[in-house]
């Protein structure tokens, strides 16, 4: 081997070691990030994939110096298992499914294509199989992130590009071996495509790692945003979510707001305890959630709920509210040896033909609810025209 050739091999070894070290650093970064929020299984799957790739890369580095058949089988198997697991992580990211089946299936198929020729002494053909299998898996991974791009367009498009670019570099490696007809090598492949592949992998590893963390942070931010808009007890949108959705919308005569309030709720808490009160609130939430026709349902706080109806013909909101009232009165819960039933009152307010803001309609529905309470509870009331003047007077005094 010439000095230049030795120098090239030394450079290739250095690049392989650099790739291995970069992969270790990325693995530790992902692991630390996952440990801070263990609900995100996507990162843990990525860690598992990298845990296969690290020994795969270092064993391949050893194979370039000691080209033994068992070492070739080991490094190829580990690298393919790593790529397959990373593909499983991309499916898990997009669909929320378990990555195990996809990872195992890809590993077995790719391993068979790669290891079988090596066992028969056709190591060159085996490395062609390795590169083709890796390219297919990486293209499939890129496609999964492409399909998920709406969640975080910038980083996910970047990941799509980097996975695809890395896949292309593996295609070039396979093409270089196949073009030269080197079906039996007796050593690690050594050509321009291999050097290019290592460089692309190092760059891709760095970029994919950074963008994966960006996507994770975007998901974490979205999780906290949704959490801040969700009532913890019932899982319904809370008051803030309701106002974010409708405070800037104009309510016409075809739209309505219904405010529900559980009757004598304090007495239920005092007599049966807060656990019973929470059960009654969840029961009411389930009733509203199951009611077809309500556009959005929200827990305003305590025992009070609000529902928005976007398309409400005259009398439709009253019919829906009455159905909820009647069904809720028929339901019961068991607390220890006691059977508890509760009733609910509702106030309804329609928008105006010229349009009215959400806050005004909500106040009207609230005033109609108070009328229902004063009239004996377990009933519904429709906001009367005189209530509009009362709301206007209250605003002028504010």
TrEMBL record:
Which keywords fit this entry according to its UniProt record?
Membrane, Transmembrane, Transmembrane helix
**What would be an example GO MF term here?**
diguanylate cyclase activity
Q: Which Pfam families match?
A: GGDEF
This enzyme's EC code(s): 2.7.7.65
Task: Output one GO BP term.
Answer: negative regulation of bacterial-type flagellum-dependent cell motility
Please report the stretch or stretches of sequence annotated as the GGDEF domain: 253-385
According to UniProt, the reaction catalysed is:
2 GTP = 3',3'-c-di-GMP + 2 diphosphate
- At the top level, the lineage of the source is Bacteria
Q: What class of enzyme is it?
A: transferase
Transmembrane portions of the chain: 12-34, 41-63, 69-90, 102-122, 128-148, 160-184, 196-216
Looking up InterPro entries in the UniProt record yields: Diguanylate_Cyclase (IPR050469), GGDEF_dom (IPR000160), Nucleotide_cyclase (IPR029787), Rev_trsase/Diguanyl_cyclase (IPR043128)
Q: Which GO terms describe its cellular component?
A: plasma membrane
Matching CDD domains, A to Z?
GGDEF (cd01949)
Which NCBIfam families does the record match to this protein?
A: GGDEF
Checking PANTHER family in the record gives:
DIGUANYLATE CYCLASE DGCM-RELATED, REGULATORY COMPONENTS OF SENSORY TRANSDUCTION SYSTEM
Report the protein name in the record.
Answer: diguanylate cyclase
**Source species of the chain:** Rhizobium rhizoryzae
């Amino acid at each position: 081997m010439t000095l230049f050739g030795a120098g090239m091999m030394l450079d290739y070894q250095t690049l392989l070691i650099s790739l291995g070290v970069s992969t270790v650093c990325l693995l530790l970064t992902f692991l630390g990030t996952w440990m801070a929020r263990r609900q995100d299984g996507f990162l843990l799957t990525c860690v598992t994939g990298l845990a296969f790739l690290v020994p795969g890369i270092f064993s391949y580095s050893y194979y370039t110096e000691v080209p033994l058949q068992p070492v070739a089988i080991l490094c190829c198997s580990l690298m393919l298992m790593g790529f397959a697991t990373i593909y499983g992580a991309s499916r898990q990211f997009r669909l929320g499914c378990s990555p195990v089946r996809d990872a195992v299936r890809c590993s077995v198929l790719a391993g068979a294509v790669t290891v079988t020729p090596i066992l028969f002494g056709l190591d060159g053909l085996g490395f062609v199989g390795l590169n083709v299998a890796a390219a297919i898996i990486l293209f499939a991974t890129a496609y999964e992130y492409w399909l998920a791009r709406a969640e975080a367009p910038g980083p996910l498009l970047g990941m799509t590009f980097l996975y695809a670019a890395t896949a292309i570099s593996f295609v070039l490696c396979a093409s270089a071996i196949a073009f030269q007809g080197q079906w039996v090598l007796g050593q690690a492949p050594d050509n321009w495509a291999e050097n290019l592949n290592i460089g692309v992998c190092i760059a891709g590893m760095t970029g994919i790692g950074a963008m994966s963390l960006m996507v994770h942070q975007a998901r974490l931010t979205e999780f906290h945003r949704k959490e801040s808009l969700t009532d913890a007890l019932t899982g319904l949108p809370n008051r803030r979510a309701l106002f974010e959705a409708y405070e800037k919308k104009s309510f016409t005569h075809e739209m309505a707001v219904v405010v529900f309030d559980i009757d004598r709720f304090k007495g239920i808490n005092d007599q049966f305890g807060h656990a019973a009160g929470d059960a009654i609130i969840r029961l009411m939430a389930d009733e509203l959630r199951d009611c077809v026709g309500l556009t959005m349902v929200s827990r305003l706080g305590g025992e009070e709920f609000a529902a928005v109806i976007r398309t409400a013909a005259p009398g439709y909101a009253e019919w829906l509210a009455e159905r909820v009232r009647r069904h809720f009165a028929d339901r019961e819960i068991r607390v220890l040896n006691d059977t508890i039933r509760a009733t609910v009152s509702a106030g309804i307010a329609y928008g105006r033909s010229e349009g009215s803001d959400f806050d005004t309609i909500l106040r009207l529905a609230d005033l109609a609810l108070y009328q229902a309470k004063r009239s004996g509870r377990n009933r519904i009331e429709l906001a009367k025209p005189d209530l509009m003047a009362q709301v206007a007077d209250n605003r002028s005094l504010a």
